[in-house]
């Protein structure tokens, strides 16, 4: 598969020990730099007894250094730390003013996380208390409860369902220092990690610092990183979830797909076709609901990527009332789209809109902010998403959009809407639960 050339201003290298690094100079905002450590390891690699340990390590790594550098304010002497743990990755971020002193501190912090020095025995109980508080504060929120209901449904009861990133509370209560060190030793391997630096910096000086600091990291034992498999659904899936308090009803239709490499010519073309199809679905459904005299709060059709090997196209609809009527209209219109496709006028309107958007982005290319670039480099490492210069992205996107035909979009829609890997979830307040029977509808 032919891969694209990267932005020529981006320095991307892999050290002999397997560690990847990305360095990109960007002065928006002026005087600031962001460091990130992205790791292809999350809760999915845990055993049953370890469930929650990846999240615990993320917390203790950041706790250790924010404690060391805390000056009584939220920025910890100019360094703003952040992080998250997901199923297939853990990501740390440090944002600061780009002074030599702050850069030195950030490199020191990242090195401590990589080497395991950040796992401080004296901080374990404080971190444990914080995670337990997070657990109890989170478990009562509607968003957490909805996730707990919907994820097993769309992940088809796979091992992912038993490895939620926040973990099991009983495990969190019992993790020992040795447990943390062993997990770190087994999984925090250079070949599974990338250092990303973007901001108002001298890229060559930064590369010298990265090489000097991280090239000596040992990588004596290669670890085979396997990813969980989600079996195909045996049939299309339905779930009705009820809640004591819910501001609005929701209809969510998920189409599970195996991920493809977007960092290729064919992958990039496919991404443009998918984005076009998602916008067309969104616009068609909104217009159809309005024509039926029904009201929406919001509707969006997006590609949701939170796993390394799988992605979900999601039609997410928020409704105040008339749930059953809107559900009938939506599913009927999706059947019509499968049978008839989009009109040529719809397709041309969307193409013109996309071309206008691309032209606007290119016109404003010099004000791209560091946080947007960081997301691209993190996603390139974790998900093989392309990193092109804005000039190349503009020219390639424009070329592909002009080449794209309505047949490309309709073919994708037929594959999507006919997939057995389709799930529909309806979230309603309890007083609606006896009036809906979603399993009688066809998708």
Instruction: Note the overall shape.
Output: globular
**What is the number of domains?**
2
Strand order of the largest sheet: 1-2-6-3-5-4
Q: How many H/I helices?
A: 13
> What is the CATH superfamily classification of the largest domain?
Metalloenzyme, LuxS/M16 peptidase-like
What is the overall pLDDT average?
A: 91
Distance from first to last alpha carbon: 34 Å
Low-confidence stretches: 69-75
Encode the helix/strand succession as letters.
Answer: EEEHEEHHHHHEHEEHEEHHHHHE
- The CATH architecture of the largest domain would be 2-Layer Sandwich
Number-wise, the strands total 11
How helix-rich are the residues, as a percent range?
40-55%
The fraction of residues in strands falls at 15-25%
Protein structure class: alpha+beta
Text of the CATH class of the largest domain: Alpha Beta
- Rg is 24 Å
Major sheet size, sense and barrel closure = 6 strands, mixed
CATH topology of the largest domain: Cytochrome Bc1 Complex, Chain A, domain 1
Topology record:
Blueprint: E1 11-14, E2 20-25, E3 32-39, H1 53-69, E4 79-85, E5 90-97, H2 100-115, H3 124-139, H4 142-154, H5 169-174, H6 177-187, E6 193-199, H7 203-214, E7 237-243, E8 249-258, H8 265-291, E9 298-304, E10 310-319, H9 323-340, H10 344-363, H11 370-383, H12 390-403, H13 406-417, E11 422-429
Parallel strand pairs: 2-6, 7-11
Antiparallel strand pairs: 1-2, 3-5, 3-6, 4-5, 8-10, 8-11, 9-10
């Amino acid at each position: 598969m032919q891969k694209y050339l990267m932005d020529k201003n981006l320095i991307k290298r892999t050290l002999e020990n397997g560690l990847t690094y990305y360095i990109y100079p960007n002065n928006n905002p002026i005087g600031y730099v962001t460091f990130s450590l992205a790791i292809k390891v999350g809760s999915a690699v845990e055993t049953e007894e370890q469930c929650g340990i990846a999240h615990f390590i993320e917390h203790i790594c950041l706790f250790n250094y924010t404690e060391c550098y805390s000056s009584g304010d939220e920025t910890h002497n100019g360094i703003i730390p952040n992080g998250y743990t997901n199923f297939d990755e853990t990501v740390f971020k440090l944002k600061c003013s780009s002074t030599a002193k702050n850069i030195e501190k950030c490199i020191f912090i990242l090195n401590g996380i990589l080497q395991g020095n950040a796992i401080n025995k004296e901080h374990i109980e404080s971190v444990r208390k914080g995670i337990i508080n997070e657990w109890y504060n989170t478990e009562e929120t509607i968003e957490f409860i909805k996730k707990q209901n919907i994820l097993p449904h769309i992940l088809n009861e796979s091992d992912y369902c038993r490895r939620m990133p926040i973990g099991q509370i009983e495990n969190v209560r019992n993790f020992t220092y040795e447990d943390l060190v062993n997990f770190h030793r087994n999984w925090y391997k250079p070949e599974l990690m990338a250092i990303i630096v973007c901001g108002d910096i001298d890229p060559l000086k930064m590369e010298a610092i990265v090489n000097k600091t991280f090239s000596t990291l040992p990588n004596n034992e290669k670890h085979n990183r396997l990813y969980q498999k989600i079996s195909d659904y045996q049939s299309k899936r339905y779930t009705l979830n009820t809640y004591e308090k819910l501001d609005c009803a929701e209809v969510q239709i998920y189409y599970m797909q195996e991920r493809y490499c977007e960092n290729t010519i064919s992958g990039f073309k496919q991404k443009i076709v998918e984005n076009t199809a998602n916008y067309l679905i969104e616009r068609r459904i909104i217009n159809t609901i309005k024509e039926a005299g029904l009201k929406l709060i919001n509707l969006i059709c997006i590609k949701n990527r939170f796993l390394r090997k799988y992605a979900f196209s999601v039609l997410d609809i928020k409704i105040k009332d008339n749930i059953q009527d809107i559900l009938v209209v939506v599913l009927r219109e999706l059947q019509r789209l499968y049978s008839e496709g989009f009109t040529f006028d719809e397709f041309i309107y969307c193409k013109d809109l996309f071309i206008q958007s691309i032209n606007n982005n290119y016109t404003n290319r010099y004000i791209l902010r560091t946080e947007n670039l960081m997301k691209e480099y993190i996603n390139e490492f974790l998900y093989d998403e392309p990193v092109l210069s804005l000039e190349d992205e503009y020219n390639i996107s424009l070329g592909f959009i002009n080449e794209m035909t309505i047949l490309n979009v309709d073919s994708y829609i037929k594959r999507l809407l006919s997939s057995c890997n389709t799930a529909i979830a309806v979230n309603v307040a309890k007083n609606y639960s006896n009036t809906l029977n979603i399993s009688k509808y066809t998708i």
